């Protein structure tokens, strides 16, 4: 007797419902909490204390960044976030706030003339005989040797204005060549002998296309602004601080005498003589070179 297997009934098909997002709809974005954005703004603000740029980096619209920064900086909670972010930066750098302020003070009070100066030197004709071209000792000897090597008679050597040119001398007011204006030249200072303030201001050097070296300095106006913000000297910043309706404390700026310069051209002036003024005719009549005659 054969056994027959019963027919299996087919299972009903399960309808799959495709999940389709409604066309044109965007999933709602999680709303960012104010504290998160404020903290982001505070983190960016302590990088350069530029409110507008900090707001842009924190995600605020560029067109309203300045207004948003001004609004945020009036909030006590944002100010607290700024203080916390600043404290973290100081802790990571392993320096205290007082050391930073001292460094900024050194930059602000440094005299840029300790890094580079512009001297106005006499020209080659100021003190030459007959106001003719004047050699230095090395130039004079080199010219004479070359003259002799060429087999020329030494008696015919062009002496011109003679030797003794010294660029440290002030321009001669009656010089017919430079008319007392001289020639300006840049003088770089040795970094090994700079004061602590000058070292703080010094930011390195750059090499020009012509091979000339120029010093690079920190921007002292930016330093002044940072210090004024630190001391609460801006009225807008002052209003942000709770409990401060007037300027807190006094911001003292110290003015110091510039360091004495070596070979200062002004020290070569006679008593009562002003820069660019002709020396006294009586005291200088013997030392002044004769005027060069015009060639007709």
Could you characterize what this model shows?
It is a single chain. It contains ten helices and four strands. It is mostly helical. The protein has a domain at about 35-95: Orthogonal Bundle (Arc Repressor Mutant, subunit A), CATH 1.10.10. Strands 1-2 form a two-stranded antiparallel sheet. Strands 3-4 form a two-stranded antiparallel ribbon. It is elongated. The N and C termini lie far apart (about 150 Å).
What separation lies between the terminal Cα atoms? 152 Å
Q: What share of residues are in beta strands?
A: 5-15%
Give the helix proportion (percent range).
25-40%
| Major sheet description | 2 strands, antiparallel
Q: How are helices and strands ordered from N to C?
A: HHHHHEHEHEEHHH
Question: What's the total helix number?
Answer: 10
Structural class, judged by helices and strands? Answer: mainly alpha
Strand order of the largest sheet: 1-2
Number of DSSP E strands: 4
Keyphrases for this structure?
296 residues, mainly alpha
Short description:
By secondary structure, this protein is mostly helical. Helix content is 34%, strand content 8%. It has ten helices and four strands, in the order αααααβαβαββααα.
């Amino acid at each position: 007797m054969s056994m027959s297997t019963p027919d299996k009934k087919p299972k009903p098909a399960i309808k799959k419902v495709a999940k389709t997002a409604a066309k044109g709809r965007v999933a709602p974005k999680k709303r960012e909490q104010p504290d998160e954005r404020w903290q982001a703004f505070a983190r960016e603000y302590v990088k350069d204390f530029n409110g507008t740029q900090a707001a842009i980096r924190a995600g605020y619209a560029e067109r309203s960044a300045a207004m948003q920064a001004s609004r945020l900086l009036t909030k006590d909670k944002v100010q607290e976030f700024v203080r916390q972010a600043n404290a973290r930066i100081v802790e990571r750098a392993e320096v205290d706030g007082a050391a930073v302020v001292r460094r900024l003070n050194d930059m602000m009070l440094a005299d840029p003339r300790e890094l580079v100066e512009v001297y106005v030197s006499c020209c080659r004709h100021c003190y030459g005989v007959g106001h003719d071209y004047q050699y230095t000792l090395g130039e004079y000897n080199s010219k004479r040797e070359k003259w002799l090597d060429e087999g020329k008679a030494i008696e015919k050597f062009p002496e011109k204005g003679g030797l003794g040119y010294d660029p440290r001398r002030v321009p001669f007011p009656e010089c017919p060549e430079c008319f007392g204006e001289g020639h300006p030249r840049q003088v770089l200072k040795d970094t090994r002998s700079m004061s602590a303030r000058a070292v703080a201001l010094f930011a390195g050097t750059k090499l020009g296309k012509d091979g000339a070296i120029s010093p690079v300095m920190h921007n002292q106006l930016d330093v002044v602004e940072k210090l004024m913000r630190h001391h609460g000297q801006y009225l807008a910043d002052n209003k942000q601080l709770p409990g401060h309706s007037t300027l807190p404390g006094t911001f003292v700026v110290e003015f110091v005498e510039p360091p004495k310069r070596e070979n200062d051209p002004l020290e070569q002036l006679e008593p009562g003589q002003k820069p660019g003024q002709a020396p006294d005719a009586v005291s200088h009549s013997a030392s002044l070179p004769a005027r060069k005659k015009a060639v007709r």
